[in-house]
């Protein structure tokens, strides 16, 4: 399978999941700044014109970080990266993935260098801080991973995007549980490999 990625983006999440279950994905780095909006070269691969996109075969291309991550995780149920379909635990994971996509991932986007003015950016920082505090509270009972069980798709997604707090200047100094969670995830071999495969170094992702 081919995975279209952009280094340093949420596309790291499906790479981590693939590493966890030992699936070799063919990676293609897309320069999204050159490919935005419209029917450009990448549009032939991804009608969403976004990364990640997973090309499964010549008829099936799958989009959305959370969905691709779950699709891959389901390939090896014994790895327990996502609960079985039909269980309430699975729905809880879907709930959290939806929260991560809409309320965290997409709240970061206006803070990356864009057209958004500084007052609006401050609003997004406040929103993000609020949403990240929710994660910190969830971790406060001493759990190692976000859903209270083994490492899974939610953790893979979060470690792909929460480190953006550094470059977007979102203060998480007071969120001690979240900070040690991030540190723990950055020690994980599947995460280290995914970053290396993108040409990144885990130390660059650690909180200062
Ligand atoms: N809803 C998508 C969002 C993915 C996303 O925001 N991708 C960004 C890179 S992090 C992108 O491809 N942006 C294209 C653009 O800005 O033109 C998902 O969850 O995968």
Task: Give structural notes.
With 208 residues, this protein is α+β, with helices and mostly antiparallel strands. Helices cover 50% and strands 7% of the residues. It has two domains: 2-78, Glutaredoxin (3-Layer(aba) Sandwich), CATH 3.40.30.10; 82-188, Up-down Bundle (Glutathione S-transferase Yfyf (Class Pi), Chain A, domain 2), CATH 1.20.1050. The chain has helices at residues 12-21, 32-35, 65-73, 88-108, 118-139, 153-161, 165-168, 176-186, 189-197, 202-205; strands at residues 2-5, 26-29, 53-55, 61-63. A four-stranded mixed β-sheet has the order 2-1-3-4, covered by helices on one side. Strand 3 and strand 4 (61-63) form a beta hairpin. It is globular. The termini are far apart. Glutathione (GSH) is lined by residues 6, 9-10, 32, 36, 50-52, 64-65, 101, 105, 109. The site of glutathione has 13 residues, from helix 4.
Could you list some keywords that capture this structure?
208 residues; alpha+beta; Glutaredoxin; Glutathione S-transferase Yfyf (Class Pi), Chain A, domain 2; 2 domains; 4-stranded mixed β-sheet; 10 helices; 50% helix; globular; binds glutathione
């Amino acid at each position: 399978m081919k995975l279209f990625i952009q280094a340093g983006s949420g596309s790291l999440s499906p790479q981590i999941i693939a590493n966890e279950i030992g699936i070799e994905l063919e990676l293609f780095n897309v320069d999204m700044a050159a490919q935005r909006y419209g029917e450009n070269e990448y549009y032939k691969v991804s009608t969403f014109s976004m990364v990640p996109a997973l090309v499964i075969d010549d008829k099936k291309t799958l989009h959305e970080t959370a969905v691709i991550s779950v699709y891959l995780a389901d390939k090896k149920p014994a790895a327990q990266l996502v609960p079985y379909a039909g269980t309430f635990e699975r729905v809880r994971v879907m709930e959290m993935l939806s929260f991560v996509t809409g309320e965290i991932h997409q709240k970061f986007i206006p803070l990356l260098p864009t057209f958004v003015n500084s007052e609006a950016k401050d609003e997004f920082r406040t929103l993000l801080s609020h949403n990240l505090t929710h994660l910190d509270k969830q971790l406060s009972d001493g759990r190692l991973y976000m859903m209270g069980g083994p490492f899974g798709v939610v953790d893979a997604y979060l470690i792909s995007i929460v480190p953006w707090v550094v470059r977007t200047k979102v203060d998480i100094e007071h969120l001690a549980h979240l900070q040690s969670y991030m540190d723990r995830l950055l020690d994980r071999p599947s995460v280290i490999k995914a970053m290396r495969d993108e040409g990144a170094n885990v130390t660059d992702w650690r909180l200062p």
